[in-house]
Amino acid sequence: MSVLKWSAAEVARKVIDNKELFILDVRNTDAFEDWKIDGHKFEYLNIPYFELLDGVEEILPKIPTDKDVLVVCAKEGSSMMVAEMLSDAGRTVAYLEGGMKTWSEYLEPIKVGDLTGGGELYQFVRLGKGCLSYMVISEGEAAIIDAVRFTDVFTNFAKEKNVQIKHIFDTHLHADHISGGRHIAAQTGATYYLPPKDAEEVVFDYTPLVDGNVVQIGASKIDVGALYSPGHTIGSTSFVVDNKYLLTGDILFIDSIGRPDLAGLAEDWVGDLRETLYKRYRELSDDLVVLPAHFMIIDELNEDGTVAKRLGELFAENHGLNIEDDETFRSIVTDNLPPQPNAYQEIRQVNMGKITPAIEEQTEMEIGPNRCAVR
Amino acid sequence: MNSNLQLDAKGLSCPMPIVKTKKAMDTLATGEILEVQVTDKGALADIPAWANAGGHTILDKSEDAGVITFFIQKA
């Protein structure tokens, strides 16, 4: 029959709209088990492409004819080959343009809500990697929090919304993905802020981000206020936006909490993490809507594709916020931690400005899930 | 290490290194050795996985200036 080509954007719509999809993933079993395209109603078959070189007849009975079928591989080439074989066998299937590499990079901007005086808050959902970036917009001005490295997405979005990017924040020095913050700042003339305690080794200029800093966006002066909340890193800082939203960075997620070990000091920072989650956040209003810098599993997405939940609900439901005993907490966040994010040490070096790998290398470094949480 | 056949798959991207490796392997007899050179990073994991699935043995793997060389003994 025929072969269709789907973009990452089309696949993202399937995820967000809770559509059914059958994914034939032709990567290695290890790669598939480590990381795949997650959807609420997706079904999967993983057969490495090199097992299909003699033909696809054997797998035909396993491939449905009554739903969309998407063939996926690392870059694209193998999925095209397998899709063509399936087409020759009489099936109509699609392959993912650019493969998992492109999926890892795709960002979908979704509106989280309205702010005082006509402002808006957008969440940029990087479905493939589980990274979340934010843009606060108000009357011609914008602030960005935790921008990923695809600077064009943010600058184009700002153009589309007719706003000028004034302030760019990173909640901490990221270890799972490469920040686009300072590059957007260089392009736009915006101020780039980093928590100084995370930035001791950085080799570029930045504006220190400290507890109590408040910037105001637009004429209606939407407050973006910094709240020092260490634990994932020693500098980790949260933001309260318009007294409505709490941007938690990698400290608190919807269904998990941040891990304290990615900068190598789990034992030292576990007390800070405990203090932030069990004291500092407890002093805030339960009605704040938590907007984290990551999600880990697809179940953390709301119906509209956003990742957001009331702080009060998280206090009731998030396991990581309900560990009574200090020692149990210490043990959970420091023992038997999951593997670290791919290339996390190199990624930290990039974010400090110490190394500047080629774009292709950056893509390789960011392959795989973010792994910033402990559950 | 000596090989019975050399395959240059440098500059090819996935899936061609494996497609060519398989074709070359099909021409060899059990116990013979194929030497294959690739530059595609994906082949680094895929060639051993492919060899493993077919029961072939990777006798040696080395990397020099971005060129990865495998010696594979046919099952």
Automatic annotation (TrEMBL), chain A:
<dbReference type="GO" id="GO:0016787">
    <property type="term" value="F:hydrolase activity"/>
</dbReference>
<dbReference type="InterPro" id="IPR051682">
    <property type="entry name" value="Mito_Persulfide_Diox"/>
</dbReference>
<dbReference type="GO" id="GO:0050313">
    <property type="term" value="F:sulfur dioxygenase activity"/>
</dbReference>
<protein>
    <submittedName>
        <fullName>MBL fold metallo-hydrolase</fullName>
    </submittedName>
</protein>
<keyword id="KW-0378">Hydrolase</keyword>
<dbReference type="GO" id="GO:0006749">
    <property type="term" value="P:glutathione metabolic process"/>
</dbReference>
<dbReference type="GO" id="GO:0070813">
    <property type="term" value="P:hydrogen sulfide metabolic process"/>
</dbReference>
<dbReference type="InterPro" id="IPR036866">
    <property type="entry name" value="RibonucZ/Hydroxyglut_hydro"/>
</dbReference>
<dbReference type="InterPro" id="IPR001279">
    <property type="entry name" value="Metallo-B-lactamas"/>
</dbReference>
<dbReference type="InterPro" id="IPR036873">
    <property type="entry name" value="Rhodanese-like_dom_sf"/>
</dbReference>
<feature type="domain" description="Rhodanese">
    <location>
        <begin position="17"/>
        <end position="111"/>
    </location>
</feature>
<dbReference type="Pfam" id="PF00753">
    <property type="entry name" value="Lactamase_B"/>
</dbReference>
<dbReference type="InterPro" id="IPR001763">
    <property type="entry name" value="Rhodanese-like_dom"/>
</dbReference>
<dbReference type="InterPro" id="IPR044528">
    <property type="entry name" value="POD-like_MBL-fold"/>
</dbReference>
<dbReference type="Pfam" id="PF00581">
    <property type="entry name" value="Rhodanese"/>
</dbReference>
From TrEMBL, chain B:
<dbReference type="InterPro" id="IPR036868">
    <property type="entry name" value="TusA-like_sf"/>
</dbReference>
<feature type="domain" description="UPF0033">
    <location>
        <begin position="7"/>
        <end position="31"/>
    </location>
</feature>
<comment type="similarity">
    <text>Belongs to the sulfur carrier protein TusA family.</text>
</comment>
<dbReference type="GO" id="GO:0016740">
    <property type="term" value="F:transferase activity"/>
</dbReference>
<dbReference type="InterPro" id="IPR001455">
    <property type="entry name" value="TusA-like"/>
</dbReference>
<keyword id="KW-0808">Transferase</keyword>
<protein>
    <submittedName>
        <fullName>Sulfurtransferase TusA family protein</fullName>
    </submittedName>
</protein>
<dbReference type="Pfam" id="PF01206">
    <property type="entry name" value="TusA"/>
</dbReference>
